[in-house]
Task: structure prediction
Amino acid sequence: MRLHHVQVACPPGGEAGARRFYGEGLGMTEVEKPAELAKRGGCWFRAYDDRGETAAEIHVGVEDPFVAAKKAHPALLLDTVDELEDVGARLQALGFDVDWNERGTFAGHLRFHTRDAHGNRVEVLTPAH
Result:
């Protein structure tokens, strides 16, 4: 079994904020939703590995009424500490809060927590080597 995607929610009209966070901030690529699903709004993002295969996929779906996920979260794994630092800095430059308080609290990894444009919790981590 493998994980295909994780879905997070945004409020109606929240796609621009999702694009800013997942696209610009995390560096994921927006992919076209199937026509039937695109009618519902939202947007999808993928990250690719060095072979061009899908490494992670986030679906941002419209939810009304909207409630941000405060504890439940996707955890995105990066390859290097430099990449972790770069993504954290890019998110901060875009105005997103990046919390490094738990940086070394997960054995074998370094990490930070952040919140997307709509307040959903997101973890970003890398092996600590």
